[in-house]
Design goal:
TIM Barrel; binds iron/sulfur cluster; DNA polymerase, domain 1; 8-stranded mixed sheet; 13 helices
Length: 376
């Protein structure tokens, strides 16, 4: 089969894996003149690049209920050889069309055998073609620790898709996968390998949840995310709103609304960057985040005892609790205060603060500024 056809087909098949904040199925993909599927992405260091995002194969022995590649689904199946994929990547890189690789795979053989082919791709790209840049490799569920270590040696970033926050939720969407042995164990191994200095992984490890069809609650997802950040050193947790795929058991399952994914990212950001704990977040009686307002604003409205915050004396973490003030603007406020008082909303606006959101929750030299309330 022609390489171009494989590239187009297996590039399209990789769209459900998230590899960076701007690298999701929602983001417009680039197509070059040969019809290849290339994805804009944001690397961990903030650089915007184009990645070749592709599956090694879409043939799979597993039957996860939501997946386009599940065994028995009627669709064309194809696979790259490691040589084919490595030389294709090299050609794209030398033409300046891509700056990195995101490689995942369905499971057409024993997990370690699939991983060995992924290792071969990365090894050829690094050793033979001398590519020094970003390579994100996906761990195949059920792989051994030795196979994970071999994969991690060539990767800039590695990831294991947990898909669900508990064994029960995983059973509902991927009955053949064992949450603890197939998915959680590799996350712990990767942490150990990094701590023991056996692998470098400069961009660390990440994971991804499929949001919706497992019946999980937002609180469960965020509790596990918090533990993954705190106890396992994960760099990012990605949340993928479920979209039904024709000719799968979940084809009639309602799609997960985009606002739920958005709220999860907002809450995740509060945990990672703002010093919030999951238990502080405003969940409803079912354990889900509200559609009506962002979690930080709803927390602020529920905690009048914390406000108003005096902008001229509050510490960094007090400032971060104010709606409209983020890490960068909190640092700007602290820096500006060294030169004198912040006297009015105009001063705050100049520092990048969203004053219509912050105003109800602050004082400036002891006085409450006038404001109009916003729930956006
Ligand atoms: S193992 Fe991966 S590719 Fe195979 S059916 Fe499950 S999610 Fe799809």
């Amino acid at each position: 089969m022609e390489i171009e056809k494989k590239l187009e087909f297996l590039g399209k098949a990789a769209q459900y894996d998230l590899c960076g904040e701007a690298c999701s199925p929602m983001v417009h993909r680039l197509k070059d003149d040969l019809g290849r599927w290339l994805y804009p992405a944001v690397l961990p260091d903030g650089k915007r690049v184009v990645l070749l995002k592709v599956l090694l194969t879409n043939a799979c022995v597993n039957d996860c209920l939501y997946c386009a590649n599940r065994a028995g689904r009627d669709c064309p199946r194809m696979a790259f050889t490691p040589e084919e994929l490595a030389s294709t990547f090299d050609a794209l890189w030398r033409r300046g069309l891509v700056k990195g690789l995101f490689l995942s795979s369905a499971v057409d053989a024993k997990p370690d055998d699939v991983m060995a082919r992924m290792v071969a791709v990365a090894e050829i790209i690094r050793r033979r073609y001398g590519f020094p840049g970003y390579i994100h490799l996906k761990v195949i569920p059920g792989a051994s620790k030795a196979a994970v270590e071999a994969l991690a040696r060539w990767a800039t970033r590695i990831s294991v898709n947990l898909e669900a926050p508990s064994p029960e939720a995983l059973k509902r969407i991927a009955p053949a996968k064992n949450f603890t042995e197939n998915l959680f164990a590799p996350i712990a191994w990767i942490k150990e390998l990094v701590e023991e200095g056996k692998v470098l992984l400069p961009a660390g490890q990440t994971t991804q949840f499929m949001v919706g069809p497992g019946g999980e609650k937002d609180r469960e997802l965020l509790r596990l995310a918090q533990s993954l950040y705190r106890d396992f050193g994960l760099r990012r947790v990605y949340y993928s709103a479920f979209q039904p795929i024709p000719d799968t058991p979940f084809e009639d399952h309602p799609p997960t609304p985009a606002w739920r994914e958005n709220r999860l990212y907002q809450a995740d950001f509060l945990i990672r960057r703002y010093g919030f704990t999951v238990e502080e977040l405003p969940f409803d009686s079912e354990g889900n985040l509200s559609r009506e307002g962002d979690p930080k604003l709803l927390w602020a409205l529920k905690h009048p005892e914390f406000f108003p915050v005096e902008i001229n004396t509050a510490d960094y973490y007090q400032l971060l609790r104010v709606p409209g003030i983020g890490p960068r603007s909190a640092r700007r406020i602290i820096s500006a205060r060294r030169k004198g008082n912040i006297n009015c909303l105009e001063d705050l606006k100049r520092l990048g603060i969203v004053t219509k959101r912050a105003a109800p929750f602050i004082t400036l030299k002891g006085k409450k500024p006038t404001f109009q309330m916003s729930l956006i």
